[in-house]
Every structure is written in C-alpha cells, then in structure tokens.
Amino acid sequence: MTLKLLFKYLLSAGIITLVSEMVKRSDKLGALLAALPFVSVITLFWVHYESTPETRDQKTADHMYYIFWYVLPTLPMFLLFPVFQRWWGFHGALGGSAVLTLLLFALLRAITARFGLML
C-alpha cells in the first residue's frame, strides 16, 4: 500500500469519525457536517492532482457535473428515511431507502436520456 493511498484511507475515516462523533453532541451540527460535500471536494482534489495536465480540467468538470445529477435521486431518501424507520425499523428503512434511491436513479436516467443526457 502506498503512502498516498494510506493517507486517503485515513482522511476518509477521519471525516466519518468526526461526523459520527459530532452527532453525539449535536444532531443539527452533525447533520450540517454530513451534508457538506467533503467527499466530493476531497475527491475533486485527488482527481485534479492525479490527472494528467491534458485531462485535468475535463476530469474535474465532468466529476462535478455528474455529482450534480447523481445527488438529485438521493434527496428524497433523507426526507423519507424517518417515515420508513417508523414503519419498518432501522434496517428496513436502510433497505427501503436503498431501493427507493435505485428506482429514482433509474427514473432519472430514463428521463434525462429523452433529452440526450446519458448518465
């Protein structure tokens, strides 16, 4: 394992740990930290610095463009998870949220394809 890969693992684990520890102290602050696009921004840096200069701009632009589209079908999960949890418990809510998100991804892909956008 390279030092750079180990750093990536530690940084990712650190962010998840920070957010989960913050939730213990404050639901609102933990949710705010979780909602921030840490993963997207960190990944953007890695893509930028690990891409060749010839492809760097296109890679980072494509990365952000697709993140925008892929976030849309995940948003309903955040609103419906509490309802699902009341109905089906925690694990059922996780499963139901995953199924909902997959269905919404498929719907998004079908709709955007009609307009020539291939996701």
Characterise this structure.
- This protein is mostly helical and 119 residues long.
- Helices cover 85% and strands 0% of the residues.
- It has 5 helices and no strands.
- The chain has helices at 3-25, 27-35, 38-50, 56-71, 75-114.
- The longest helix has 40 residues, at 75-114.
- It is flat and about 50 Å long.
- The mean pLDDT is 92.
Short description:
The protein is an all-alpha fold. It has five helices and no strands.
- What structural category arises from helix and sheet content? mainly alpha
- Total of DSSP H or I helical runs spanning 4+ residues: 5
Q: How much helix is in the residues?
A: over 70%
Low-confidence stretches: none
The rounded distance between the terminal residues' Cα atoms is 32 Å
DSSP strand count: 0
Mean pLDDT: 92
Proportion of strand residues: under 5%
Radius of gyration: 17 Å
Largest sheet, if any?
Answer: none
Shape: flat
Order of helices and strands: HHHHH
